[in-house]
């Protein structure tokens, strides 16, 4: 496997795999990230070591992935300045269970601070490059005002973490316009990243199209998770991406990722296969036609569950904090 990885690294060496996007505070984030969701610690360690050999420089993990120890081991001995490390703390509420325990919304501020400290310890790092609130607060029952308060309390903890130089940037995941409007009332630092589900097949009327504009208007970088579809292989096996891939001599994965990168959206992918990892970086040095982009813009995956929403957290621009 080491020989294979070396050959693949040579193959992608001429591609601009270090393309970066500049965040609002000037920090540059590599557009291609290696994710480790659902990996056990030893699997995450092995996958990251391979990804680094192939050419990835951006690693994405989270407290509730339960594998931060493996991530930390994988980057031990590697020049820290050459790696962009992202981690996450869970949103408070019923779903807020992570490696460091539960995060009740009644402890939104103090609990978030606890998780942030735990992340550094588990990763065995003095700082991370980006930390996100993994999802909006999800209290079992609360008023709109109280939900907004939880949003603000969690963000306050991230702002303090940022100002203490424990992270180079801060952001959120699956946040809706309503939650950003809530934050504007108290924030001293604007979120720099919003990581949401985004991929081919969501359609031209997808809420994420409007959300991308909202984020751009507010100087927030939109980043894609599940760029190859949320568990639906149709995206990379169907006729839509297959025909475009054949026209360019590329894989369907490269087409799906190229579509996102061309929109200026960074993405998080994952694989423990060296050939697949190299393919995930194969989005540079070639171009799709405007007609192909237009076709992919309009395409809606059969049974798509998110075509008309911003994220799993909200359905419309006007919806109140959820």
Question: What does it look like?
Answer:
There is one protein chain. The chain has 322 residues and is an alpha/beta fold. The protein has a single domain (2-298), classed as Alpha-Beta Barrel (TIM Barrel), CATH 3.20.20. It is built from 12 helices and 12 strands. The strands form 3 sheets. The chain has an 8-stranded parallel β-sheet, covered by helices on one side. A two-stranded antiparallel ribbon has the order 1-2. Strands 6-7 form a two-stranded antiparallel ribbon. Strand 8 (130-133), helix 5 and strand 9 (170-173) form a beta-alpha-beta unit. Helix 4 (108-123) packs parallel to helix 5. The protein is globular, with a radius of gyration of 19 Å.
Low confidence ranges: 1-15
What is the chain-wise order of helices and strands? HEEEHEHEEEHEHEHEHEHHHEHH
User: What is the makeup of the main sheet?
Assistant: 8 strands, parallel
Shape field: globular
Please give the radius of gyration in angstroms. 19 Å
- Count the strands? 12
Topology (SSEs and partners):
Blueprint: H1 2-12, E1 20-22, E2 28-30, E3 32-35, H2 41-54, E4 58-60, H3 68-74, E5 84-89, E6 97-98, E7 101-102, H4 108-123, E8 130-133, H5 144-163, E9 170-173, H6 177-184, E10 193-197, H7 207-217, E11 221-225, H8 234-237, H9 239-248, H10 252-261, E12 267-269, H11 274-280, H12 290-298
Parallel strand pairs: 3-4, 3-12, 4-5, 5-8, 8-9, 9-10, 10-11
Antiparallel strand pairs: 1-2, 6-7
Helix pairs in contact: 2-3, 4-5, 9-10
């Amino acid at each position: 496997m080491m020989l294979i990885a070396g050959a693949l690294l040579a193959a992608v060496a001429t591609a601009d795999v270090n393309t970066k996007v500049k965040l609002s505070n000037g920090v540059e984030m590599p557009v291609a990230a290696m994710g480790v969701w659902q990996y056990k610690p030893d699997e995450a360690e092995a996958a990251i070591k391979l990804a680094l050999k192939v050419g990835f420089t951006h690693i994405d993990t989270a407290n509730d992935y339960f594998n931060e120890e493996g991530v930390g081991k994988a980057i031990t001995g590697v020049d820290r300045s050459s790696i962009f490390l992202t981690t996450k703390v869970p949103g408070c509420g019923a779903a807020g269970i992570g490696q460091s325990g539960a995060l009740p919304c009644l402890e939104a501020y103090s609990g978030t601070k606890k998780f942030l400290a735990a992340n550094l310890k588990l990763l065995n790092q003095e700082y991370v490059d980006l930390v996100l609130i993994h999802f909006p607060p999800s209290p079992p029952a609360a008023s709109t005002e109280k939900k907004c308060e939880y949003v603000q309390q969690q963000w306050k903890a991230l702002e303090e973490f940022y100002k203490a130089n424990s992270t180079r940037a801060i952001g959120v995941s699956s946040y809706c316009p309503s939650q950003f409007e809530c934050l504007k009332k108290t924030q001293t630092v604007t979120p720099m990243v919003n990581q949401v589900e985004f991929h081919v097949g969501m359609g031209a009327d997808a809420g994420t199209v409007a959300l991308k504009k909202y984020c751009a208007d507010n100087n927030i970088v939109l980043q894609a998770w599940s760029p190859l579809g949320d568990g639906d292989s149709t995206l990379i096996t169907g006729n839509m991406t297959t025909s475009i891939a054949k026209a360019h001599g590329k894989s369907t994965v490269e087409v799906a990722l190229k579509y996102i990168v061309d929109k200026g959206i960074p993405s998080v992918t994952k694989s423990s296969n060296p050939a697949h990892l190299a393919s995930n970086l194969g989005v540079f040095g070639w171009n799709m036609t405007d007609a192909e982009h237009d076709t992919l813009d309009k395409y809606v995956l059969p049974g798509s569950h998110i075509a008309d929403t911003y994220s799993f957290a909200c359905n419309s621009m006007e919806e109140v904090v959820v």
